[in-house]
């Protein structure tokens, strides 16, 4: 795994919009690969919750015959948490405020996911 390349992509995501508050790459077991999270968040708890949301999203998408899961969007009163694919082994999670331009985040997640996937597989 090329953790330097993963972190560089997280920095690009974070700097792409002032509305992005946190970003993380999490494997399907809920383990954080790398993150830029505020210090008041518990990494292991965040990772476990992301993995749970991802699992439920996959089940819903399959049950409703919507194909492979590509994204999960959680909207709260104060903003969004968006999960996007980072290849076959991980997901990118972005937390942003309610002022964010979602289209920009969707594009950035797709770009970053394509860059992070091979970095995770590097030995």
TrEMBL record:
UniProt xrefs under Pfam families: Robl_LC7
Protein name, entry field: Roadblock/LC7 family protein
Domain Roadblock/LAMTOR2, first and last residues per copy: 6-96
Top-rank lineage group of the source organism: Bacteria
